[in-house]
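Contributing new complexes? Match this layout with adenosine-5'-triphosphate.
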Amino acid sequence: MRIFSGIRPTGGLHIGNYLGAIKQWIALQEQNECVFCIVDLHAITTPYEPKDLQKNILETTAVYLAAGINPEKSIIFAQSEVKEHAELAWLLETITPMGELSRMTQFKEKSKQHKDYINAGLFSYPVLMAADILLYRSKGVPVGKDQEQHVELARTIAKKFNQKFGQVFDEPETILPKTGAKIMSLQDPKKKMSKSDDPKSCISL
Ligand code: ATP
Ligand code: LTN
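Output block (do not edit by hand):
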């Protein structure tokens, strides 16, 4: 099965990223065609220091390798190196209703968190994520619970595209870990752990 997943290079990774995503990737790469991306185009939808971005891309790659993603078995690359991600996202945006995007929990949360940084890229973020997945005709998307809604939207977009233009895309499915799909924050146990809210829980190289 073709597998696609990615992590935003927004800082050091934490145990939630490991248990929710990377640990599954390590197992999946043994028997599947895996593509693991460093999603830098997604990282620039929330506030960031331009000079830190390159360093974060390299650090995230280093963590993938250190955790056990084997570049001889899996494909590892930075999203912005393959311009077709952004190209397909544009096409998919034209068939994605604004209403669907405004229902996305992550958009609502990040908008609340960064009130002066609510940009159009943040709004259409899930469409770029759908493009990432559909571009490779991926069937499985190993992510934590917080990303399930985005993968569902990618399925909806794939169905709609196929209905309009013929069978082009496979309909992807979320692969959730049995344990650790939603690790809670040590700062606020009602929220999920995240790089931005829990910098002290993140490893730095
Ligand atoms: P940011 O604070 O920059 O939004 P994040 O820590 O929420 O970062 P992402 O880069 O958005 O992390 O997520 C990478 C992967 O890790 C995704 O598959 C996501 O579902 C998973 N993940 C993130 N946080 C958790 C968590 N607390 N528990 C389980 N999985 C998680
Ligand atoms: N939105 C995801 C990161 C991401 C992703 C993807 C995950 C971008 N494109 C494609 C799986 C498949 C997040 O974890 N915040």
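Reviewers usually confirm one structural detail per submission. For this one: Residues 89 and 127 are 6 Å apart (CA to CA).
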